[in-house]
Amino acid sequence: MSYEISMIGSGNVAWHLAMTLDNAGYPVKEVYSRNFRNAEALVDRLYGAEPKSDLDFSNSPSQLFIISVSDDAIKEIVREIILPEEAILVHTSGTKPLNAMEFAATKHVGVFYPLQTFSKSRRIEFSEVPLCLEAADGYTKRVLKEIANNISKHVAMIDSANRAILHIAAVFACNFTNHLFKIAEDILDEHKLKFDLLKPLIVETVNKSLEMGASISQTGPAVRQDFEVLDKHMEKLEYNEEYAEIYRLLSQNIIDTYGESEE
Amino acid sequence: MSYEISMIGSGNVAWHLAMTLDNAGYPVKEVYSRNFRNAEALVDRLYGAEPKSDLDFSNSPSQLFIISVSDDAIKEIVREIILPEEAILVHTSGTKPLNAMEFAATKHVGVFYPLQTFSKSRRIEFSEVPLCLEAADGYTKRVLKEIANNISKHVAMIDSANRAILHIAAVFACNFTNHLFKIAEDILDEHKLKFDLLKPLIVETVNKSLEMGASISQTGPAVRQDFEVLDKHMEKLEYNEEYAEIYRLLSQNIIDTYGESEE
């Protein structure tokens, strides 16, 4: 069955999610943004939505209201939003628990969290994006699952506690990984070497790790317990205390992880 | 002009490099391995090579001798190998300096380092592999460059000091990245969550970072200076001191890297 949708927010997640839903036969009827222009910009990409700059949805035709704003703004919107009867209200945050909506004007609350990083300028194959759902009641759960299954191949019910764990894991695997690239770039810059040289190795390392598993793919001086190379590297990193400490700590953790199983 | 080649070693790098050279019109004539069977296995994949288990190459038809063995074994091979006159001798190590070959029986020594991770079971598009060259004399440099340019689009002269820097950067961008995936997997395992859920996010994060640059791509609680989330994550990581410390240190470094430019 079809549901009409109102999108509260016009950032990167709202942008991709609204277009995906609109194209999948879940018409987005309204887009709210504090900044009316941003609402209009997203409305321009949709079939029949109206821009809105107030949170009074009492006359809305929609059944599902998706709050897709920065984490800090969720609480205030939940408090201020006026909803039609039996409305379902969800947020799309990976970090905020379900009870961030405890003071909502509806009992049909949930979470609709797409586990992906979005930019307006980058196309994402939405059907490959894992959707992590949570719902306060059976009706909400049924509706969210139905919609989610129509736009993604990877739908999972994940409660707030597990979503927090997922977020921590994502910080390690994604935020920190990106920062390691930054450190590598910085070290190379320091010596007028180009980061481009490393890119083929990075791509192959990541592909290999995801296909074969991280444990079997681990290489480098730490897993080999090549203390001569480790010492030389630490020495060369003395100019930046934090880099040296990151190097030391990650190498130590690799040694601790694999050390006992070897010899 | 063509050169005949003898490969000393039959590991992952030797395997890919020998086949690439053989196919590019640089016939591999001999393959040495301490273990004769390993030499035979590689010879089977080449057009006209002979397996060898001794290091006497005095009657070799080759002009270029490539030592592609584990770092620790290089020195001994350099000391033991018997070469024809005017032979060029190179190693393929990212970590060992040119002077690892100071006692070689030839003055034509160099480094022929393919900056990539190789497995026998994975196909690599060799023309995309950066080749880092170093040479002790002009003749060696000319020959290595000519051969390198015929098998790769990315050839750079990199001296031993810069190759060491490149290696440190690769440890951060590749070895440590792989280990962060392992940590993420481990955290998810602990809560019976599947690492597969994170894979689309990892792929997009890495692609985005390599295409748009790491600085502009940095996301997450640390760069947002979201101390509420950082504290919560640290608390959840208390069960593993090293993970907690890695989280703290990398988050701190992200804050220090981006903090001053914001507000």
From TrEMBL, chains A, B:
At the top level, the lineage of the source is: Bacteria
Domain (DUF2520) ranges: 129-254
Q: Which Pfam families match?
A: DUF2520
- Which SUPFAM superfamilies does the record match to this protein? 6-phosphogluconate dehydrogenase C-terminal domain-like, NAD(P)-binding Rossmann-fold domains
| Gene3D superfamilies, A to Z | NAD(P)-binding Rossmann-like Domain (3.40.50.720), ProC-like, C-terminal domain (1.10.1040.20)
Residues annotated as coiled-coil are: none
Residue ranges annotated as transmembrane are none
What is the name listed in the Swiss-Prot or TrEMBL entry for this protein?
DUF2520 domain-containing protein
